Amino acid sequence: MTAKKFEILVLNQISPAGLKRFPGDRYECGKDVGKPDAILVRSADMHSMDIADTVRAIGRAGAGTNNIPVKAMSERGVPVFNAPGANANAVKELVLAGMLMAARNLVPAVNFVSALDCDDKALGERVEAEKKQFAGMELPQQTLGVIGLGKIGSLVADAAIKLGMNVLGYDPQITVEAAWSLPSQVKRAGSIEEILKTCRFVTVHVPLLAATKHLINAKNLELVQSGTILLNFSREEIVDAGAVAKALETKKLKWYVTDFPAQVLCGNPAVIALPHLGASTREAEENCAIMVVEQLRDFLEHGNVCNAVNFPQVSMDRESSWRVAIANANVPNMLGQISTAMARAGLNIHNMVNKSRGEMAYTLVDVDSPVADGVLKDIAAIDGVLAVRWLPLAAG
Fold it and tell me: Which of 4, 180, 216, 357 has its CA 20 to 30 A from that of 104?
């Protein structure tokens, strides 16, 4: 009997380098699949989408998941995967380009040359006479403040140090892994306010959460030195655009460099706005697609969870051909009830792992024999169980 293929609904143009990681004999991918087991998405807004009951996972080929109804998926026991760090180098390079554009006044300089009359015999003389207005600064010995020291922030800090800059970093939520990868020359700031008071260049690299919306605002922008250059390649709402407009008007900020054009800043000559180019490289798109496809496969085939924004990290090597994966509310006695249901059916538990994250818990159980549909239904009926999946090891 041929095993049913996994069906993957693809909502956006996804790099072929990622899609080809789905084996054709086990997966069917497309924009019109009937009963998707998973959804692969980039920028499509899924909040108003009718997401089929068959969906067991969602993969975002990028870092942010604001376009996905994560809370609703958590309530259904559906993990939402992303690809953190896969586009980090692309964003880092754009941040460096932004610093250089601002430091050397490159945008107005290019605009000046573009407006010149190339048939003017005095072209060279005019260039020499007017180039002084575009004189800028060099980056060595300048101080860069990095708010958020994850993968992108760490890469930016490292590159800035190699360019001869001093770097001050702030991240109260820094992970052990990120701390190990951070260059030792990065000095620790005690607050965002210290960064803003001290640094000539400031760049933000934090996720958009309720706590980080307008992290840079009118109140703390009052603290910056006159002539500060602010860069935002994180998310538009991290920075209060209205407050930036006022800070530019008062010359507190010399430049605002961002990947997110805002209406209130349109036409402002001190704003360098790019059309959300952070991850727009072939390499970044390939890296994101490959990373999230591998994560989806590992979950669909083995139940392992890596880089889900709403589930704990859970991975267990296969020691049996028969596995059950259970997503449930993080409440007392769930493991006891699950074990009891299996014992009642005469199943021997070979191995088990259970982890929690906030209100969500996730359990993988390897057993020594097949699990009947009735047992799965008994587990699914336990109060607090959100999803149950039967994962026999595929032949071959």
Answer: 216
